[in-house]
Write a structure and sequence with these properties.
The protein is of the alpha+beta class and 323 residues long. The chain has 2 domains: 173 residues, Thiolase/Chalcone synthase (Peroxisomal Thiolase, Chain A, domain 1, 3-Layer(aba) Sandwich); 144 residues, Peroxisomal Thiolase, Chain A, domain 1 (3-Layer(aba) Sandwich), CATH 3.40.47.10. Helix content is 33%, strand content 26%. The protein contains 10 helices and 15 strands. The protein has a 5-stranded mixed β-sheet with strand order 1-7-6-4-5, sandwiched between helices. It has a 4-stranded mixed β-sheet with strand order 8-15-14-13, with helices on both faces. Strand 10 and strand 11 form a beta hairpin. Helix 3 packs across helix 4 and helix 7 runs parallel beside helix 8. It is globular, with a radius of gyration of 18 Å. The protein starts with a strand and ends with a strand. The structure holds oxa(dethia)-CoA (UT7). Oxa(dethia)-CoA binds next to helix 2, helix 6 and helix 7.
C-alpha cells in the first residue's frame, strides 16, 4: 500500500511587494536595504504579504480548494487534515480544525504540525504513515503561513527574507507507487539559532515576539542537512540522484538551493526555484513551489520528485515520490 499525491494547489495573497518597494517602506523607519543586496545574497526579488485580516486558515482554504479540485475529491471524502504552520490563527484550536470548518470536511480528523520550515515535509511524512497504517484513505496536507506577522521590520537581516502563502496536496491510498521514502530529523540543541522565543503568560506576551535568526549558522546547517537527507531518501528507495526528475528544496535562499544541488551533483535546470518570486514562506514554501511547477507544466504525472525542508527546531527532512 502506498500513498499517492492526486492533487496540488496553492494560494498567494494579493499584495506583491518588490525589493525596491520594501526598501522604500523600510527607509521610512531608518532601515537601510536595497534590491541589489537582497537579490545578490538571497535570490529574492519579491514576496507576497497577507492583508491584516487574512489568517493562515484563510490562505490554506484557497490552496486546499485548488488541490481538491485537481484531485476531483469532495471535502466530505477527506478523512484527515494536517496543516503545517508556525503562524496559526489562534493558540488553539488548531488551524487544521479551523480549515476543516471553512472547507466543510465534516468527516475528517484535523491537527497541526509545528516543524517551522520543515513543517510540510513532516506533515507529508505523517500523512503517508497514517495511510499506510490504514488510519486514513484520503488526506489533505497543507502548509500555510502568515509569517510576516512575526517579523521585526527594524531587523533588516531577517525581515527582507520572508513572505506569506499556502500550498496543499491531496493524498490517497493507492496500490500504485506514490511516496517511496521519507526521512525526518530534529536537533533541539540548535533551538537558539532560529526562533520566536516568546510565550503567553498571565494575559501578557513574555519574551521576544519577533523572529530571531543567526543567518550564517542557519545557512551552514541547512546546506549540510539538505545534502545529507536527500542522500538518505535516495538510499532508502535504492535510487540515485540521476534518476530524479525534479528536486524541490525548501525555498529560503538561492545560494542554499544551489549549494545543495552542487553537493548532490544535480543540475540546476532540474531544481524548482520559486524563492525569487515568493521569498521564504516557511511551511508553505515546498507545496507552493511544487504546485507552481505542476501548474506551469514543468512537473508531470509519473515523474520522480524529491522535496525537502529545513528550519527552526532545528528540523529537516525529505520525501521522495512518484507523482
Ligand atoms: O527557512 C530557514 C530560514 N533561514 C534561512 O535559510 C536563512 C539562512 N541564512 C541566509 O540566507 C544568509 O545568512 C542571510 C541572507 C540571512 C545573510 O547573508 P550573509 O551573506 O550571511 O550576510 P551577513 O549576515 O554576513 O551580512 C553581511 C553584511 C553585514 O554588514 P557588515 O557587517 O558586513 O557591514 C550586514 O549588516 O550585510 C549586511 N546586511 C544587509 N545589508 C543590506 C544584512 N542584511 C542586510 C540587508 N540589506 N537586508
Amino acid at each position: 500500500m502506498y500513498s499517492k499525491i492526486i492533487g496540488t494547489g496553492s494560494y498567494l495573497p494579493n499584495e506583491a511587494v518588490t525589493n525596491d518597494e520594501l526598501a522604500a517602506r523600510l527607509a521610512k523607519d531608518g532601515v537601510e536595504t536595497s534590491d541589489e543586496w537582497i537579490r545578490s545574497r538571497t535570490g529574492i526579488e519579491q514576496r507576497y504579504l497577507a492583508s491584516p485580516n487574512q489568517t493562515s486558515s484563510d490562505l490554506a482554504l484557497f490552496a486546499a480548494q485548488n488541490a481538491l479540485e485537481m484531485a476531483e475529491v469532495l471535502p466530505s471524502e477527506i478523512d484527515l487534515i494536517i496543516v503545517a504552520t508556525t503562524s496559526p490563527d489562534m493558540t488553539f484550536p488548531s488551524t487544521a480544525c479551523l480549515l476543516q470548518a471553512k472547507i466543510g470536511a465534516d468527516n475528517a480528523a484535523a491537527f497541526d504540525v509545528q516543524a517551522v520550515c520543515s513543517g510540510f515535509v513532516y506533515a507529508l511524512t505523517t500523512a503517508d504513515a497514517m495511510i499506510r497504517a490504514g488510519q486514513a484513505k484520503k488526506v489533505l496536507v497543507v502548509g500555510s503561513e502568515v509569517f510576516s506577522r512575526m517579523l521585526d521590520w527594524k531587523d533588516r537581516t531577517s525581515c527582507v527574507l520572508f513572505g506569506d502563502g499556502a500550498g496543499a496536496v491531496v493524498l490517497e491510498a493507492s496500490e500504485e507507487a506514490g511516496i517511496l521514502a521519507s526521512r525526518i530529523h530534529s536537533n533541539g540543541r540548535l533551538s537558539s539559532i532560529l526562533n520566536v522565543s516568546s510565550s503567553i503568560q498571565g494575559g501578557k506576551v513574555v519574551g521576544n515576539p519577533f523572529m530571531y535568526m543567526d543567518g550564517q549558522a542557519v545557512f551552514k546547517n541547512a546546506v549540510s542537512a539538505l545534502g545529507d537527507v536527500a542522500q538518505e531518501v535516495l538510499d532508502a528507495a535504492n535510487m540515485s540522484a540521476e534518476q530524479l526528475d525534479w528536486l524541490i528544496p525548501h525555498q529560503a535562499n538561492l545560494r542554499i538551493i544551489a549549494a545543495t544541488a552542487k553537493r548532490l551533483d544535480f543540475p540546476m535546470e532540474k531544481v524548482v526555484v520559486t524563492v525569487n518570486q515568493h521569498g521564504n514562506t516557511s511551511a508553505a514554501s515546498v507545496p507552493l513551489a511544487f504546485d507552481t511547477a505542476v501548474r506551469d507544466g514543468r512537473i508531470s504525472k509519473g515523474q520522480t520528485v524529491l522535496v525537502q525542508g529545513v528550519g527552526g527546531g532545528f528540523t529537516w527532512g525529505a520525501n521522495l515520490f512518484r507523482f
